[in-house]
Amino acid sequence: MSVRLAIVYYSTYGTNHQMASIAAQAATAAGAEVRLLKVPETAPAQVVAGQEAWKAQADKTADIPHATVEDLEWANAYLFSCPTRFGVMASQMRAFIDTLGGFWAKGGLANKAVSAMSSAQNTHGGQEATILSFYTTVFHWGGLVVAPGFTDPCIFKTGGNPYGYSHTQGAPFTDEVQASIGYQARRLVQFAEKISA
Q1: For tag attachment on the chain, is the N or C end more exposed, with fewer CB atoms within 10 Å?
Q2: pLDDT attached to residue 124
Q3: Is the pTM of this model over 0.90?
Q4: Phi, psi (degrees; rounded to nearest 5) at 13
C-alpha cells in the first residue's frame, strides 16, 4: 500500500509553513502521496490584519487548503507542525484536533503513523513539551508515534531533539535544518509503509 501523508500545520509568521513545505518535498521524493494542509485561523480577522507579518503570511498561504476530517480519513500517516504557546501546541491546532472526536470514536485515527515538529521564539521556549503534547494526543487515538530519535547524525547537527524537529524563530533554514526535517519526513514515510503493508 502506498503512503498517503497528510502534513497538517499552523503558522502565524511562516516558520511552520516552511518546515511543513520542506517535509512535503522530502516525503514526496520518498514516494509518498502528500497533502499539505493548514488548520483554520481562529484569531479574529481584525487581529490578524492588525499585524503586518501575520497578515502577510495569511495572504501568502491563502491558496493552501484547510485540513478536514476527510483528509485525515484519506491519509495513513500524519505529520503535524505548529508553534508552541506556553509549552503546548497553539490553540488553532488544538481547536482543529478537538473537531476530530467523531472520527476518533469510529477508530479512524488508530493505527496510523504520526510525527510532529514545532518552533518557538527561543531555544528553550517549550518546543519539546509541545511535541510531547502532540504525542499524548496520539496515544489517546491509538496512533503510532514515529519520532526521529537519535537515529541519524543530522539530528545532532540541529540541536539533538529526538522527539521531532524544532526550530527557533528567525534562525536560517540551513542545509542541516533541511536535512533534519527531510530525515524525519522520510522516516515517517518508511514506517507508515511498514505499518500499512
Answers
A1: C
A2: 86
A3: yes
A4: -115, 0
